[in-house]
Amino acid sequence: MLFCEKKGGGFRFSRVTSATVVVNSETILASAHGFFLRDKESQRIISFDWQSDCFFRKYRNSKAVFEARFEKARFGAHFSREEESEDWAVLRLAKPLTTARPLRVARIDPARADSSTRIPIEIIAHHDSVEVTRRLYYSSGEMRLADNDSGPKRLVHDADTSGRASGGAMLFEQEDGIVSVLGVHSGGYSGRDVNRFVHIDSEILGAIREIKEP
Questions:
Q1: What is the pLDDT of residues 91-127, one digit of tens each?
Q2: What is the CATH number of the domain that holds 133?
Q3: What is the C-alpha to C-alpha distance for residues 168 and 134, in angstroms, rounded to an integer?
């Protein structure tokens, strides 16, 4: 999980979102908007510093078994329409994670999808209705081509999610039986029954390789 917290003006601000360990034991893929928070009272945007305010924590059986801050980060977004984007963050942990196995990446190209495309997926993330330290939330669904999109082809999914699910792994079982990660959940659409997600492409893989370098 990605935790961010800071104090300012006599108040304490915090945000919790999901995060996914990919490729190796030091790399985290998350949503960039997990590093921001809109204060409900003032409506101002609170920005968290990824080095001093945020950290990654893993739980097992309701107990924290790993915690680390970040030493490198790259942020980006896939802009599909002027008013909407799927943002992402690739971060390098200050120490390797020893309590989980990194997920293998499965590439998917939205440009090759058509109206018949249906990809069974499962999301593993945290949910508003589940106590943060209790367990992960699993939800199954399908990935398909977005409807009525005037921009480039893009895929959406219909798995059940909530506010803490951003950054949660979108899993896909390949023909060889190995479960791999296609990308991470990014958010929902107002008034629609589908969700956005960020698929892992060459730009994100490039960021992963870049932060691995000393």
A1: 999 999 987 778 888 877 776 777 778 888 888 777 6
A2: 2.40.10.10
A3: 16
